[in-house]
Design brief:
Helix content: over 70%
Distance between the termini: 57 Å
Number of helices: 7
Number of strands: 0
Strand content: under 5%
Largest sheet: none
Length: 180
Amino acid sequence: IFFANLASIGSTGLKAAIEPFWHVRMIRPESGAQARSEFAKVTFGWLLIGTVMSMAGLWAMTVWGHRNICFDDWLFLIALCLAAGMLSMSQVPHYTLYAAHDDAAIFKISAVVLLTATVLSLALTSAIGLSGTIASALAGSGLILALKALQARRVSIARMSTSAPATPEGSSLPADTDGG
């Protein structure tokens, strides 16, 4: 539990301090895409800071806490930070889906990931212990990031094709081009 708490520093700070300020901008049709791009950069930076803080916390335990922290502990913390980071980064495509009112996709993806992560956690934890738990956390967070990103890409492509002005030849150009 201690490692999970350390690993969640970045994502907890992101949810509590950063995301609320970006929420409204990310769901506006006129500024959402740009805001989500900026939010992705801020999120990545915040997660890097959180990961460094997590590592510093573990390092402090070795120096001032006089605890023996083995190499596996460092690997576990890095893996948990990576899992928390992927889960946090999944908010970027989540807001694309949310702004597009694609609630059905959000629900389906969440259900698939919940089922998959639960089965993996039960199977891997019982088979290989803590390493299995961490592997299932990585798999679940990676899966939700990948599925949301794929669906957000589909939504973005569909929006571009339906909102693009028709050219005289009957083809469509992306909405943000001037045709030249």
